[in-house]
Design a protein that fits this description.
single chain; 3 domains; seven-stranded antiparallel sheet; 10 helices; globular
Amino acid sequence: MLPILLLVLVLIITGVIARQGMLSAFLHMICVIAAGAIAFALWEPIGYALLDSMGSFGAYVMGCTLVLTFLVALVILRLAMDKLVPENMNFESGANWAGSSIFGFVGAFISVGILTLGAGMLQFKSDFFGYTGWARDRATAQPGEVSSTPMFTAVYTARFYEMLSVGSLSPMMNGGALKQLYPEIDKMSWSMLRDGFVGDSGNGRSWMQPKSIKVTNDQFTYLPNFASGSINPDFPRFNGAYIVPLKVDVSSFDNGSQFTMSNAQARLIAPAGTSTGGAATAFPKLYVQPSKAGTPTPYAFDDGSNFVSNKAGTQALDFILIFPGDELGPPTEGDYHLQIKGLRLDLPSVTVEEQGMEMLAAMGGGATRQLPTGEGKALTANDLKIDSEIPIRISYNAKKGLRLNDKNFIEGGSGEFNSGGPGNNVSKANRVTNFFEPEGTRIAQLTVGRRKPIDLDALRQEGYADQPLLLVDENGNTYLPYGYIRMGRQKTSILYNPLSPIETVGGLPTLPSSGNTDLFILYRVPIGVTISEVRCGDIPIGSCSTKVDFDD
């Protein structure tokens, strides 16, 4: 239904343009084509420059950048064209009607097509008004065409600019052609970018920030002797494999809770064989990630419920994507690219290894974990507690900058409140009392301050302001704080941002010398672990044994 409605919109715009006459319609079509070329040329560098600084709006940056760049370029070009050609020309009635209709239709079609491509890049549900173009088959997990009606405007606009990108408008410097860097961008836009674990709810992150992901150790390897059946006879069969080890941090997580990725949200783009040819692409068939025990374990994308994901509460994930060599062939000269959740990464030069699984087993590992030493000052249950409750009562009607869910639990934000009230004067239904704890996680509160075991002012004076304040579990996993509660006699400040951990001691608030202000540092940790140490950088400063259990 949606593609048909868009075609109706094209016809309406065509009628408006055609009424201006054939010359005007022709000039408008030229302006639209040129504006589209400018938009596709500038869309990626402008969007990537904004992604890291836009926070939660980052999921909308790339789609908006494409559309707005096109509109700005179109307005400028059309105004310039009207200055250059101020008068219309008269044609025979039939020729004028036919020409203006054709030129108007082309201009309208491309305009709606770029709008459609940009809209498809926004973060919303995997379907839109009931329409899903390309997505995974829920039984086999293989990406393919879902709707029998293609998104006409997006498909043919993408094909048109792909043709121009290797033809008359091919880039002369600084980059490759659209056809070779973003092949079949319409399929990713509708709807594989959003075909993830929480795609049906519209909460899944469809674009990652460039700072949130990196290729581990700059490794990109081709294993010619790789055979998937040698790992597990039930895995999808293919021979030869391209191996890409990756590391993502908390800024890539869906709503700051957990990283999830389907095989439809990643693809390897190989170099084109010729200057005008299209690039070969492949979706990953296998992936390697830590098991519940922490051991790197291979899994297959052979079921709609299989996703790359991290353990709840952890703040980073090391994983490996394995792409079938059968679909891409052996390495060729040129640059390879990885498109993952919309973001396009330039991969390092591919290396060929003959060792197969031995090489795979050695890849993707993060830095060696530093296990707790038992050193540092002893912490009591009052110094570190597992508790999501806030020490004051806040009314829903006076939540200020806090973001709440439907149960009035704090999901993020900040605000300053009176320390003494409103207390019991607020009805139970309107009270804000706790932080939201995603499934599998708990909130840990570390009390710090003057004359406390953990003294931030002393750490600053000793030159550790640029070091992180970490909780460390028994396996050496570390956890950065997501916020704090600064509680004084008169005012209490709350800051909580699951998408942006506080990375240094200097990023935490200072306390007055009077000693009448408490500071609670907020962490989110997985259920089942034992917090054994507080560490400033690599230095143990606190020792404990706090088990993270389910809330009673």
